């Protein structure tokens, strides 16, 4: 027995060391390794935003310094006030906010209804028509510019906000796809039970399905807001009255004043002011955004 006990002690020590190494490896793979990869990637994606803020705070003379400095030596916060004075910032902010609000409302109403028809209602040719709808995602917008301008001109919509708002009240193919994938995760038994109680499709949609699909609706609203807020080609083509311009068009004022002397610090300051609402919206609704774009997020 005296010869067996030390061997057993050695075996136990080896098992403890092996289990410790296994726990360390699991801890490394779960916590350390993802951060070693994600932190540099996040820094890479944040670099343009940090550089934009840095240039926005630099004085004009510091822009021509060589080698360029990453951070401003003497931050000049008055650049933001000067950038607002270059173009009618508040007027364009109101125009952009109005278009964005109406676009979000229309998208929040139309896309869930269309997606519900493709995901929860059985009708002949449903999948084929959905394939055609989804195929429109691959049609680039510049291909449709001439045809859309001709159609909107016939309706008398040129130089109004209608071409920028009305089309999104009838759904967007990609947003319909996102909503459909989310709605398909909701068990069919819920709809069947409601039908047995006498509920029609609209009542099932608005009282049963949509309350459980708030994350997907929030994602659609975020995408719609980003689309309307950052849209440049639409206002450039369909709007001719300067009083109706949006913020994205307003940035061109910094280059139109002088072809050879662009004040990039004021341009970056205006860009920061335009980007801030977008960042605020994302951070406010990021939980819904992550839940909505994750397939199978319904519990």
Structural commentary:
- This protein is an all-alpha fold.
- It has two domains: about 5-55; about 85-295, Orthogonal Bundle (MetI-like fold).
- About 70% of the residues lie in helices and about 0% in strands.
- It is built from 16 helices and no strands.
- The protein has helices at about 5-55, 60-65, 80-85, 90-120, 125-135, 140-155, 160-165, 175-185, 190-195, 200-210, 215-230, 235-240, 245-250, 255, 265-285, 285-295.
- α3 (about 80-85) crosses α15.
- The termini are far apart.
- The relative contact order is 0.12.
Topology overview:
Layout: H1 4-56, H2 60-63, H3 78-86, H4 89-119, H5 126-135, H6 141-155, H7 162-165, H8 173-183, H9 188-196, H10 201-209, H11 214-230, H12 233-238, H13 247-250, H14 253-256, H15 264-284, H16 286-293
Briefly summarize what is shown:
With 299 residues, this protein is mainly α.
Which descriptors would you attach to this protein?
single chain, 299 residues, mainly alpha, MetI-like fold, 2 domains
CATH class of the largest domain: Mainly Alpha
> What is the correct CATH architecture of the largest domain?
Orthogonal Bundle
The string of secondary-structure elements, in order, is HHHHHHHHHHHHHHHH
Rounded mean pLDDT score: 84
Tally of structural domains: 2
**Can you tell me the CATH superfamily of the largest domain?**
MetI-like
